[in-house]
Amino acid sequence: MFDLVTQGFKDASLKLKGQTRLTDENISQALDAIKRSLLDADVDLKVTKQFLENVRGKALDEVVQLKAKSGQKVSAGDHFIKTCHDELVEFLGGNQTEIIKNSKGPTVILLVGLQGAGKTTHAAKLAKLLAERYKMRPLLVAADVYRPAARDQLKILGDKINVPVFTLESNDAVEIAEKGLEFARSEWLDLVIIDTAGRLAIDNNLMTELESVKAKVNPQNILLVIDSMIGQDAVRTASAFDMRLNLTGVILTKLDGDTRGGAALSVKKVTGKNILFAGTGESLDKLEEFRPDGMAGRILGMGDVVGLMDDFGKAMDMEKAEKSASRMLEGHFDFNDFLEMIGTIGKMGPIKDVIAKTPLASQISEKDMDKVKDGDISRKGAIVQSMTTKERENPDLLLIQKSQTARSRIARIAKGSAHTEKDVKDLVDQFMQMRQMMQMMSGMGLGGGGLLSKIPGLGQLNQMANMAKMAKMMGGGGGGGMPAGLGNMFGGSGMPTPAGGMGGGLSSADLAEINRMKKRKKEEKLKKQKKR
To answer: Could you tell me where the Basic residues compositional bias lies (predicted)?
Structure first.
């Protein structure tokens, strides 16, 4: 949803390319590009002006060293983007915040907002998230007494996530909320989420009812549910609710939509209230804790590794993934692993959103990103599912140059999956590239405790260096295109790969490492043959 803003920061960085000093002249050009993108994204005008002034004040006349202590080359553009990142984090709320927990009874969360914002659905999403993340025992309270079927909807959602729902045959929202809290205490439940009625517009009756509910149940958290698609109206809505109820935070919905994103960048600065949660999809698991640093990284094209690993954790069986990762890094990678990998990625949401959270995001051009298609996941899966068990476990059987048998296998798989033979051949080629990449990662010492034990947070510097090295090799030197394996997998153009492997973008040291790896593999194979 932040495409407009991201493009503005990319344009600003390009304007500073090759500069060693940030001056009033060159920084003004960069800030103009950002200003246009922020206003196009419907960011509040006052917020935009303040952001630009803060960045200018912190970055102006800063002398940029051409080399950091680590030896890595940096530029004026790098320093400028770092300044923008820090300022974005501050504008989005600074440090990550959490709900306020009650130490003497159930924690009460009162959800408020306009009709159609998604309060009822997000009540269930929030209950599911807090139950799984913090092992809380939630109760949903259906206190929307005006919208037809609102109570039934909450009951259905509660059943889906195995969370009890409390309601009464009453039209008194205050009574329902009060009795619901009493029920939670009697059942030793430690979280109460109250779904309240909304209106098409803010009116005095709505606010008076909400003030009465607040006075009766004394909630620790009053969260405003805002539809991010309504732009600056969302900010005005937040201000109006805050004046009457003293909000403690905001839930921003539909962040996965094709919206301009201005509300997310404005709401904290205008209202002073942090965004605590963000809805990123329609299913009940598509709610995440809002992380300002992660969102700032995604806006700037720097990725959000922590958020990405959280998505992985939700989508995969961790024990199974550990075993698969260890196998892959030991050089064992077959079509079963491949199928499991693309299945996991498919569960994580739109592919563009997944890629946006990777550190490689800034290397992918807008043109290549437009070629990324979610449907390619299911098409790849259909081809693999048409293979026999033997073919999945022994991918080399499908190497066309080996025999006529391989060609007949390709033809059969193409017919069975309703694809062309070229589609199958392309998939086999992409798979071979990925397998070689896994073997290279093993050769560079990324194995040991399994991939998942190594990646979270990318906390160790040597691993960051190795991942950056891999990114460079995958992208042919960072020329702006999508990495070959990733691009081909999801519809992007990628970088051309020389016949016979990935050697085109590798250094002599890398090629030597590959040769050593091949030699080691041959030696292991000979040993196994002798044992037989």
So the answer is: 517-532
Which distant-in-sequence residues (6+ apart) come within 8 Å of 292 by Cβ?
88, 89, 90, 92, 93, 94, 95, 96
Q: Which domain holds residue 13?
A: 3-91
- As a whole number of angstroms, the distance between CA 275 and CA 253 comes to 10
Per-residue pLDDT tens over the stretch 348-387: 666 666 666 555 555 555 566 666 666 677 788 889 999 9
Domain count, the chain: 3
Distances (CA, A) of 31 to 43, 47, 224, 267: 15, 14, 32, 22
- Residue spans of beta strands (DSSP E) within 280-320: 287-289
Rounded-to-integer distance, Cα 218 and Cα 246, Å: 12
C-beta of residue 337 within 8 angstroms of C-beta of residue 358:
no
Last residue of a domain, one of 257, 279, 301: 301
Question: Rounded distance, CA 232 to CA 253, Å?
Answer: 14
The CATH number that applies at residue 374 is 1.10.260.30
What is the rounded distance in angstroms from the CA atom of residue 331 to the CA atom of residue 328?
5
- CA–CA distance, 93 with 305 (Å, rounded to integer): 19
